[in-house]
């Protein structure tokens, strides 16, 4: 049994059909990348997995438990955790308060000290309000807020977008470390070279359909298939 | 030019009015911030609170028991409103939410009128608040001083709940982004129910506490509601400190202007609101980008 099984989901934003018959699976300890152009359906897939968007048809199972149609809070308590593209840090709350909110309903939350170990920068800024953090710090806090819940499956939506190259290097290293520790991750990212380095497997999206499935190592060796869903050879 | 004594007296009146406005606006702004619902029934609920005090006082002859019993009634009203009506409107457009809460307000006010009649009712000043107190520089009605103290204590209590408890942490996070609170595993629907009920108890308590000072009529909440809207615009939508400071500023402006010419008190209030909207559209304590 795969950790995550998605079978034939369709999703709509109002009247516009955005996901068509999307099926995918994620194994325990695997890092899976969703690649595709803007608007291909990657973010929508993550939002549908998290329950923010309800799938019209199809089934989603997390560790065998059907989760489609459940509200996000129930899905989070089942062990899935989305780090959204917009980071969604609570700007009026301090760094520590942001983390405390996230811990409230977690089964086995990390102690704060473990977060400070992974993110020493956040420890320095623990009393600062979210809105005063830099973009990179906000992204760290957004990831930390997910990690403190010790999720069985982490969904990262464009974690490197809009950040300075040095910060991106830090976050890539962090993601690599999480993967090496055996954390299961689904990542959506435009930075193809960074993500191909991190991922074990890749799904290619085009116009709401999955058009490619393969090993990241194969794409690194031969990027030609990416023309089909990225419109470029990385 | 009014005398110094008259101005001081009006300043105290402003404090009493301002603290009540702060209590009413706190509930309104937290509900708006967390649930995204602008509760147009808030004024009617202020009157429901005052009438509850009237009925409870007749039954128990104790103002303290009336406040406690009245709070329990308002809690039930808040729970019922959220469960039966409001929760079905979270995903509906703003106009629908305004129409349904406005409609509830009309039903409540007309229900009060049908049951109690259109004539005003009197709630006696509690025995421990009768008379006037010498402050050294002036004499001021004792109950009004107590009113300021009680409301201040209630606001401090609300502050402690919001800033020192886990529930308050969730509410403050929910005011910013209720969707993200859900993604972090917290059942926001339950938080919404709690916030709505607390907001209704707050406005009900304001009505109960105000009842001994004025004539209790079905329409008594109307001006409070409009002024509370101004308060939350002044303070910043969804901001509790904004509601408190905004309430006090509004109370003082209304009362101090009345010392000169009461016809201008609302003009001054709206004038200040216009100024704040031009200089700082997000309000004194609001966050930029929030609407």
Give descriptors for this structure:
heterodimer, A: 234 residues, alpha/beta, Rossmann fold, 2 domains, 6-stranded mixed beta sheet, 4-stranded antiparallel beta sheet, 10 helices, 26% strand, globular, B: 291 residues, mainly alpha, two-stranded antiparallel sheet, 2 strands, 73% helix, 2% strand
Walk me through what this model shows:
- Chain A: Keywords: Amino-acid transport, ATP-binding, Nucleotide-binding, Transport.
- Chain A: This is High-affinity branched-chain amino acid transport ATP-binding protein LivF.
- Chain A: Belongs to the ABC transporter superfamily.
- The complex is a heterodimer of chains A (234) and B (291).
- Chain A is α/β, with parallel strands linked by helices and 234 residues long.
- Helices cover 35% and strands 26% of the residues of chain A.
- Chain A has ten helices and ten strands.
- In chain A, strands 6-7-8-3-9-10 form a six-stranded mixed beta sheet, sandwiched between helices. A four-stranded antiparallel beta sheet of chain A has the order 2-1-4-5, covered by helices on one side.
- In chain A, helix 7 links the parallel strand 7 (153-157) and strand 8.
- In chain A, helix 3 runs parallel beside helix 6 (135-147).
- The longest helix of chain A is centred in the last third of the chain and has 16 residues, at 165-180.
- The N and C termini of chain B lie far apart (41 Å).
- Chain B has a domain at 20-220.
- A two-stranded antiparallel sheet of chain B has the order 1-2.
- With 291 residues, chain B is mostly helical.
